[in-house]
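Give me the 3D structure for Transposase.
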Amino acid sequence: MASKDDNFNLKWRAYKEFRTILKIQPVQIFSELQEILCVDCPSRSAVERWAAGLRSGDADITDLPRSGRPVSATTSENIALIESIVWKTSALLSIS
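Predicted structure for Transposase (96 residues):
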């Protein structure tokens, strides 16, 4: 399931893609994003790279799978493990 941040990122990426398709210059797209996102705005160079990639067909608005840590590390097994550690630790502390 996508998080709020994932949905937000997808929305601004889609915005940049649509504006690029309409042949709006990256400088204008960046200015619009600054107005909309304020401090959360990507850098101008990031917008320019993204627009260049979209124009050349090398970019996609969806994230590619990444190696490493999974998107969500919360599983029933992890929860049970943490609960057992907490119970053992609290039992040890109460004995002392």
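The chain has four helices and no strands. Let me know if you want a second pass.
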